[in-house]
Design goal:
There is one protein chain. By secondary structure, this protein is α/β, with parallel strands linked by helices. Helices cover about 40% and strands about 20% of the residues.
Length: about 300
Amino acid sequence: MRRAIVTGANGFLGRHLVQELEQRGVAVTALARRRRSDPAASARPADWTASIAQIIETAAPDVIFHLAGRAQGSAAELEQANLGITRQILAALRALGAAPVLVCCGSAAEYGTAISDGVPVDESALCAPRSLYGAMKLAQTNAVLEFSAETGVRALVARIFNAIGPGMPAHLALGDFAQQLVQLPPSGRLLVGDLAVHRDFADVAHVAGALANLALHPSARGVVNICSGRPTQLQRLVEGLIAQSGKSVSIQPVAERMRPGEPGVIVGSTARLGALGAMLPPPAFDATLARIWQHAQTTAPPS
């Protein structure tokens, strides 16, 4: 892999993937809604979707990592950001007759009710999303798989579980908690939902490494879970984040943050990931939480 395009390059995972690829000596064309902080970076602005065919032709990538998407918004916004942009990329590849490896980022939200509490879910599960976001990501997955079947282009959908690390957005639990902690005085109350749940957490840097490794594996195609295969209680991570802050903070569950009806334990199967030699390293949550806290402090708006 010498050249790659990364869409969503300024997003949470995108920033880490660009760094991973550049460390491997890959020339990256970064496509994002806004430019990276580095003025020398080759990120393009929001209108890149209108010229995606020209960008692909010019960059001549070996791999396209398609991370651009949206987790929140109206039905129309979610459809355009997750399915519409994907269709534009697929149409461009068809028109050019180009065949770079396509790595598209999906989500564990695609599984929905196919998840049984505490049972590792594998890629053969019959997806039934609970959320509109999950439904849009599943539609994106199906579009990519259909394109691959029609054209023979090697395409991979990385169905990512709970990536955590510095720069997490506020719509993710630990990202929200980190932002709350930064704004709290030396003592205060952290507002939370259900911390008894167990989820499959993985360091975002390890997820980025797995994406790069899968792109290089000639047998990696179709859907592959990107997960640790280990359930971890959210309470443990929240307590660790509070410890990193050094603040005397009490935890206060509030009703509006609860999500009734969700499984207590969600964990992914790593069988396919392991067969492809892309297993994630064992989690080192203390180090990950330290990086989350450090980043939250340096990026917090002035009070």
